[in-house]
UniProtKB/TrEMBL annotation:
GO terms for molecular function: alpha-mannosidase activity. It holds the Pfam family Glyco_hydro_38N. InterPro entries: Glyco_hydro/deAcase_b/a-brl, Glyco_hydro_38_N, Glyco_hydro_38_N_sf, Glycosyl_Hydrlase_38. GO terms for biological process: mannose metabolic process; N-glycan processing. Transmembrane segments: none annotated. It comes from the Eukaryota. This is Glyco_hydro_38N domain-containing protein.
């Protein structure tokens, strides 16, 4: 945390089920999580960004609570495909979520992730065709955004639970990035890097 390589997002006790939760439960779990962070990690690491990639439904109420909790940005994932299709077609995947009763609040919609692909201990086995496929997906995704930065989440709720997986993912992606960046015909200016959600906003 001190070096900036890890960021605490939202900081609630759980990721709220936005479709069915009562506002008391939403606020209570947020308070519980923030008090735990304050007591065990310290005041210097208060979350500044909201992360909501796997709730069952999205609620403008939760966005409102996040804004009132001093979050200025958010990342959303589970959005109806027709909404994603519209946003992608109009290059609005990075958008300002305006609610009828609030001011502007920034959120992002992320597309497909590859978290269900099993971990490969040695990235060399992925081969050139795998790197080309991944690069092509990144290239296609980049065409849906206004900016030259895209967010590609890696993993899900049940990932990165062992040191082996952390090391394997890091090592494999560094090999893939090195290979992609060496392919001049693909795009001389392609730049792939790891970063924290805070750097998006």
């Amino acid at each position: 945390l001190k070096s900036g390589k890890l960021e605490i997002l939202t900081g609630g006790w759980v990721m709220t089920d936005e479709a069915n939760s009562h506002y008391f439960g939403i606020i209570s779990q947020l308070i519980e999580g923030h008090e735990w962070l304050s007591n065990h990690i310290g005041e210097d690491y208060k979350p500044r960004n909201h992360w909501s990639i796997d709730p069952f439904g999205l609620s403008p109420t939760v966005s409102y609570f996040m804004k009132k909790s001093n979050f200025s940005n958010g990342v959303l994932q589970r959005v109806h495909y027709s909404v994603k299709k519209h946003l992608a077609g109009t290059k609005q995947l990075e958008f300002i979520w305006r609610q009828l009763w609030t001011e502007r609040q920034v959120s992002s919609v992320c597309l497909k992730d590859f978290s269900y692909i099993s971990v490969v201990a040695d990235g060399v086995r992925l081969g050139i065709s795998g790197a080309a496929l991944l690069y092509d997906q990144y290239r296609k995704k980049a065409q849906l955004f206004k900016t030259n930065v895209i967010l590609v989440p890696l993993g899900d709720d049940f990932r990165y639970d062992t040191p082996f997986e952390w090391e394997s993912q890091f090592t494999n992606y560094m090999k893939l990035f090195k290979y992609m960046n060496a392919q001049l015909p693909w795009n001389v200016n392609v730049r792939l890097q790891r970063f924290l959600p805070a750097l998006l906003f």
